[in-house]
Amino acid sequence: MPVDAQTAEQAEASGAGLVMDLPAYKQAEEKTSAAMARFRKEEAKIKASDDPRYTAEVKAYELRKLREQLDEEIDAINEEWTAARAEIEEQARQQAAAFTVQVSDSDRAIGEQLANRYALRLAAAPAAMTQSSILRELAADIGRLQDGARAAVQPHLLNLRNVLAEGVNMTNVLTAAQMRNAPELAAGRAADRLHTLNPTYEHQMFRVIRGALPAHDYTKDPRNR
User: How far apart are CA 164 and CA 123, in angstroms?
Assistant: First the structure.
C-alpha cells in the first residue's frame, strides 16, 4: 500500500506542506456514513410501524438489536482502518529511514564555509543576546540552502555549541537544517499524525448524543416468552 497512493483529509507534516492521500481512510469514512444511513432508515421504519405485533417492548428489542448491529459494523470498520493505518505508517517510516540526499563537492564547500563563518562570528561576540541574534541569521541562511548544501552543513553545526554562551539555545538552527521539504521525510512525519484521524467520527458523535446501550434492557425477544 504505497504511501503516495494513500489519501486523508488532513494528515499533514508540519512545515512541509504535504498532505497524504489515504483511500483507506476515505473508504472507512464512507462505510461509516453508509452504516449510519442504514441504521437511521431502519430505526425510523421500526418506530413508525403500526403493526400490532410491534408492541412498545418489541420495538425496544428490535431497536436495541439494530443498534448492536451498527456498533458491531463500526467496530469492524475501525479494525480495518487500524490495520491499514499501521501498514501506511510503517511504509512511510521505512521510506523516511532510507532517505538519502546527494551531496556534491560544491555542497560540502558551501556547508563547511557557512558553518565556519558563523563560528567565527559567534566566537567574536560572546554576549548571549548577540549570539542569539547571530543564530537567527544562521537559521535564516540555512533555510535558503538547497537540500545538498543543507545536508552538508549538518555535521558542522553541533561544533558551534562549543562557542556558545551559557543559556544560548540553537534549536532554531538545528530545526532549519532538517530536510523538511523532502517528500519521503515529510511522509514519515505525516504518518506520525495518522492516529489523530477518526473515520468513524460520525458514529462517535452519535454515541455521545445517544449514550451507550444499557447492559440488560431488552436483550431478549419478548415474542419468545
Answer: 8
